[in-house]
Amino acid sequence: MIITLLSDFGSFYPAQMKGVILSRLQGGSGNEASKITFVDIAHDIPAQNVRAGAFALLSTARFFPSGSIHIAVVDPGVGTARRGLVLESGGQIFIGPDNGLLLPAARSLGRPAAYEITPHPGASCTFHGRDVFAPAAALIASGQQPESLGPRVRPKDLDFGEAKRTARGLEAAVIYIDRFGNLILNLQKLPGGDVMLMGIRLKRVRTYAEGRRIEPLITLGSHGFAEIAINQGNASEAFRLKVGDRIELEEI
Length: 252
Description:
Layout: E1 2-7, H1 13-25, E2 37-42, H2 50-61, E3 69-73, E4 84-89, E5 92-97, H3 103-109, E6 113-117, H4 128-141, E7 152-153, E8 164-165, E9 169-177, E10 183-185, E11 195-197, E12 200-204, E13 216-220, E14 226-230, H5 235-239, E15 246-251
Parallel strand pairs: 1-2, 1-3, 3-5, 12-13
Antiparallel strand pairs: 4-5, 4-6, 6-7, 8-9, 9-10, 9-15, 10-14, 11-12, 11-15, 13-14
Helix pairs in contact: 1-4, 2-3
Protein backbone atom coordinates (compact mmCIF):
# COMPACT_ATOMS: atom_id res chain seq x y z
CA MET A 1 0.00 0.00 0.00
CA ILE A 2 1.43 3.38 -1.04
CA ILE A 3 0.62 6.49 0.99
CA THR A 4 1.97 9.81 -0.29
CA LEU A 5 2.25 13.05 1.65
CA LEU A 6 2.31 16.60 0.32
CA SER A 7 2.32 19.70 2.52
CA ASP A 8 3.77 23.10 3.32
CA PHE A 9 4.93 21.80 6.72
CA GLY A 10 8.68 21.61 6.24
CA SER A 11 10.67 18.91 8.03
CA PHE A 12 9.30 17.28 11.19
CA TYR A 13 5.49 17.59 11.14
CA PRO A 14 5.08 14.99 8.36
CA ALA A 15 6.85 12.43 10.57
CA GLN A 16 4.08 12.84 13.16
CA MET A 17 1.50 12.03 10.49
CA LYS A 18 3.40 8.90 9.47
CA GLY A 19 3.70 7.88 13.12
CA VAL A 20 -0.07 8.16 13.60
CA ILE A 21 -0.75 6.01 10.54
CA LEU A 22 1.75 3.33 11.53
CA SER A 23 0.52 3.26 15.14
CA ARG A 24 -3.08 2.78 14.05
CA LEU A 25 -2.17 0.00 11.63
CA GLN A 26 0.29 -1.77 13.90
CA GLY A 27 -1.18 -4.96 15.30
CA GLY A 28 -4.02 -5.08 12.83
CA SER A 29 -4.92 -8.26 11.01
CA GLY A 30 -1.97 -9.12 8.80
CA ASN A 31 0.12 -6.33 10.38
CA GLU A 32 -0.87 -3.71 7.82
CA ALA A 33 1.80 -1.28 9.07
CA SER A 34 4.57 -3.43 7.60
CA LYS A 35 2.92 -3.21 4.17
CA ILE A 36 2.93 0.60 3.97
CA THR A 37 5.30 2.45 1.67
CA PHE A 38 5.43 6.19 2.33
CA VAL A 39 6.35 8.58 -0.48
CA ASP A 40 6.94 12.27 0.26
CA ILE A 41 5.85 14.26 -2.76
CA ALA A 42 6.89 17.60 -1.26
CA HIS A 43 6.89 19.43 2.05
CA ASP A 44 8.30 22.71 0.74
CA ILE A 45 5.12 23.99 -0.89
CA PRO A 46 5.08 27.77 -0.30
CA ALA A 47 3.30 28.41 2.99
CA GLN A 48 -0.50 28.46 2.65
CA ASN A 49 -0.28 28.49 -1.15
CA VAL A 50 -3.16 26.17 -2.02
CA ARG A 51 -2.79 26.65 -5.77
CA ALA A 52 0.88 25.68 -5.72
CA GLY A 53 0.04 22.56 -3.71
CA ALA A 54 -2.77 21.68 -6.09
CA PHE A 55 -0.45 21.98 -9.08
CA ALA A 56 2.22 19.78 -7.45
CA LEU A 57 -0.37 17.12 -6.62
CA LEU A 58 -1.89 17.30 -10.11
CA SER A 59 1.53 16.90 -11.71
CA THR A 60 2.45 13.89 -9.58
CA ALA A 61 -0.59 11.74 -8.77
CA ARG A 62 -0.98 10.30 -12.26
CA PHE A 63 2.35 8.48 -11.94
CA PHE A 64 1.17 6.37 -8.99
CA PRO A 65 -0.58 3.00 -9.27
CA SER A 66 -4.22 2.32 -8.58
CA GLY A 67 -4.91 1.96 -4.87
CA SER A 68 -2.53 4.73 -3.80
CA ILE A 69 -3.63 7.06 -1.01
CA HIS A 70 -2.59 10.72 -1.25
CA ILE A 71 -2.68 12.96 1.83
CA ALA A 72 -2.29 16.62 0.87
CA VAL A 73 -2.34 19.41 3.47
CA VAL A 74 -1.95 23.05 2.53
CA ASP A 75 -4.58 24.38 4.84
CA PRO A 76 -4.83 28.08 5.77
CA GLY A 77 -8.39 27.40 7.00
CA VAL A 78 -7.44 24.67 9.49
CA GLY A 79 -9.71 24.66 12.53
CA THR A 80 -12.46 26.68 10.84
CA ALA A 81 -15.74 25.47 9.37
CA ARG A 82 -14.01 24.23 6.21
CA ARG A 83 -14.58 20.50 5.71
CA GLY A 84 -12.13 17.64 5.60
CA LEU A 85 -12.52 15.38 2.58
CA VAL A 86 -11.73 11.98 1.22
CA LEU A 87 -12.06 11.79 -2.57
CA GLU A 88 -12.07 8.66 -4.69
CA SER A 89 -11.17 8.97 -8.36
CA GLY A 90 -9.59 6.72 -10.95
CA GLY A 91 -8.82 4.04 -8.38
CA GLN A 92 -6.88 6.43 -6.15
CA ILE A 93 -7.76 8.15 -2.87
CA PHE A 94 -7.15 11.80 -1.98
CA ILE A 95 -7.44 13.06 1.61
CA GLY A 96 -7.16 16.66 2.81
CA PRO A 97 -8.97 19.96 3.33
CA ASP A 98 -11.90 21.09 1.22
CA ASN A 99 -10.22 24.18 -0.21
CA GLY A 100 -9.69 23.07 -3.81
CA LEU A 101 -6.30 21.47 -3.11
CA LEU A 102 -7.37 17.93 -4.03
CA LEU A 103 -9.76 18.45 -6.90
CA PRO A 104 -7.51 19.17 -9.93
CA ALA A 105 -5.53 15.97 -9.33
CA ALA A 106 -8.61 13.87 -8.59
CA ARG A 107 -10.45 15.25 -11.59
CA SER A 108 -7.51 14.49 -13.88
CA LEU A 109 -7.91 10.78 -13.08
CA GLY A 110 -11.66 10.43 -13.45
CA ARG A 111 -14.94 11.56 -11.89
CA PRO A 112 -14.30 12.23 -8.19
CA ALA A 113 -16.68 11.12 -5.46
CA ALA A 114 -16.17 13.19 -2.29
CA TYR A 115 -17.07 12.37 1.30
CA GLU A 116 -16.83 14.57 4.38
CA ILE A 117 -14.53 13.62 7.26
CA THR A 118 -15.85 14.70 10.64
CA PRO A 119 -13.04 15.61 13.10
CA HIS A 120 -13.22 13.81 16.44
CA PRO A 121 -13.62 16.05 19.52
CA GLY A 122 -10.00 15.66 20.64
CA ALA A 123 -8.47 16.76 17.33
CA SER A 124 -6.06 19.68 17.44
CA CYS A 125 -7.50 22.86 15.97
CA THR A 126 -4.18 23.60 14.27
CA PHE A 127 -2.96 20.21 13.00
CA HIS A 128 -5.67 18.33 11.11
CA GLY A 129 -2.95 16.67 9.05
CA ARG A 130 -2.00 14.60 12.07
CA ASP A 131 -5.32 14.36 13.93
CA VAL A 132 -7.89 14.12 11.10
CA PHE A 133 -6.32 13.25 7.75
CA ALA A 134 -3.70 10.73 8.92
CA PRO A 135 -6.30 8.70 10.90
CA ALA A 136 -8.60 8.77 7.85
CA ALA A 137 -5.77 7.42 5.69
CA ALA A 138 -5.17 4.64 8.22
CA LEU A 139 -8.84 3.65 8.06
CA ILE A 140 -8.75 3.50 4.26
CA ALA A 141 -5.49 1.55 4.33
CA SER A 142 -7.06 -0.96 6.72
CA GLY A 143 -9.85 -1.66 4.25
CA GLN A 144 -12.64 0.79 5.07
CA GLN A 145 -14.46 2.35 2.13
CA PRO A 146 -14.41 6.15 1.66
CA GLU A 147 -18.18 6.38 2.04
CA SER A 148 -17.88 4.95 5.56
CA LEU A 149 -16.07 8.10 6.73
CA GLY A 150 -18.98 10.47 6.18
CA PRO A 151 -21.71 11.78 3.88
CA ARG A 152 -21.16 12.45 0.21
CA VAL A 153 -20.60 16.16 -0.52
CA ARG A 154 -19.76 18.49 -3.38
CA PRO A 155 -16.13 19.59 -2.99
CA LYS A 156 -14.89 23.13 -3.40
CA ASP A 157 -13.51 23.68 -6.88
CA LEU A 158 -10.15 25.04 -7.91
CA ASP A 159 -9.56 25.73 -11.57
CA PHE A 160 -6.30 27.00 -13.04
CA GLY A 161 -8.28 28.53 -15.88
CA GLU A 162 -7.13 28.71 -19.47
CA ALA A 163 -5.05 31.14 -21.48
CA LYS A 164 -7.07 33.59 -23.56
CA ARG A 165 -6.35 34.98 -26.99
CA THR A 166 -5.87 38.73 -27.18
CA ALA A 167 -5.40 41.14 -30.06
CA ARG A 168 -1.61 40.82 -29.72
CA GLY A 169 -1.21 37.21 -28.61
CA LEU A 170 -2.15 35.26 -25.50
CA GLU A 171 -3.02 36.22 -21.93
CA ALA A 172 -2.00 33.56 -19.39
CA ALA A 173 -1.54 33.20 -15.64
CA VAL A 174 1.45 32.01 -13.63
CA ILE A 175 0.18 28.95 -11.72
CA TYR A 176 3.45 27.65 -10.24
CA ILE A 177 7.10 28.61 -9.86
CA ASP A 178 9.58 25.79 -9.42
CA ARG A 179 12.87 25.92 -7.46
CA PHE A 180 14.73 27.00 -10.62
CA GLY A 181 12.50 30.06 -10.98
CA ASN A 182 10.71 28.67 -14.05
CA LEU A 183 7.27 30.19 -14.55
CA ILE A 184 4.62 27.54 -15.25
CA LEU A 185 1.57 28.91 -17.08
CA ASN A 186 -2.03 27.77 -17.48
CA LEU A 187 -1.23 27.06 -21.11
CA GLN A 188 -0.98 23.49 -22.40
CA LYS A 189 -0.02 24.25 -25.99
CA LEU A 190 2.89 26.41 -27.05
CA PRO A 191 2.43 29.37 -29.37
CA GLY A 192 3.41 28.66 -32.96
CA GLY A 193 6.66 30.61 -32.75
CA ASP A 194 8.71 32.91 -30.57
CA VAL A 195 6.83 35.41 -28.42
CA MET A 196 7.62 38.54 -26.42
CA LEU A 197 7.10 39.03 -22.68
CA MET A 198 7.48 42.58 -21.35
CA GLY A 199 9.29 43.47 -24.54
CA ILE A 200 11.77 40.59 -24.25
CA ARG A 201 11.87 37.84 -26.85
CA LEU A 202 11.27 34.28 -25.59
CA LYS A 203 12.87 31.63 -27.77
CA ARG A 204 10.60 28.63 -28.41
CA VAL A 205 12.58 25.49 -27.57
CA ARG A 206 12.16 21.79 -26.79
CA THR A 207 14.69 21.82 -23.96
CA TYR A 208 16.52 24.45 -21.92
CA ALA A 209 19.95 23.72 -23.40
CA GLU A 210 18.77 24.84 -26.84
CA GLY A 211 19.11 28.39 -25.57
CA ARG A 212 22.27 30.35 -24.92
CA ARG A 213 23.31 30.99 -21.31
CA ILE A 214 20.92 33.49 -19.67
CA GLU A 215 18.65 33.45 -22.74
CA PRO A 216 14.88 33.67 -21.99
CA LEU A 217 12.96 30.66 -23.28
CA ILE A 218 9.49 29.20 -23.55
CA THR A 219 9.01 25.42 -23.64
CA LEU A 220 6.49 22.71 -22.84
CA GLY A 221 7.46 21.23 -19.47
CA SER A 222 7.32 17.60 -18.41
CA HIS A 223 4.08 18.37 -16.52
CA GLY A 224 2.33 19.25 -19.79
CA PHE A 225 2.15 23.02 -19.21
CA ALA A 226 4.07 25.80 -20.94
CA GLU A 227 6.85 27.33 -18.88
CA ILE A 228 9.00 30.39 -19.22
CA ALA A 229 12.62 29.78 -18.24
CA ILE A 230 16.03 31.38 -18.46
CA ASN A 231 18.80 28.98 -19.34
CA GLN A 232 20.99 28.83 -16.20
CA GLY A 233 19.02 31.73 -14.76
CA ASN A 234 15.84 32.54 -12.81
CA ALA A 235 12.83 33.73 -14.81
CA SER A 236 10.75 34.60 -11.74
CA GLU A 237 13.40 37.02 -10.51
CA ALA A 238 14.24 38.39 -13.93
CA PHE A 239 10.63 39.22 -14.81
CA ARG A 240 9.60 39.95 -11.20
CA LEU A 241 6.60 37.65 -11.43
CA LYS A 242 4.86 35.54 -8.78
CA VAL A 243 2.13 32.90 -8.67
CA GLY A 244 -1.22 34.39 -9.65
CA ASP A 245 0.22 37.13 -11.89
CA ARG A 246 -1.29 37.46 -15.33
CA ILE A 247 0.94 38.06 -18.32
CA GLU A 248 0.57 38.76 -22.03
CA LEU A 249 2.63 36.83 -24.53
CA GLU A 250 2.90 38.97 -27.67
CA GLU A 251 3.26 37.05 -30.88
CA ILE A 252 6.14 38.13 -33.10
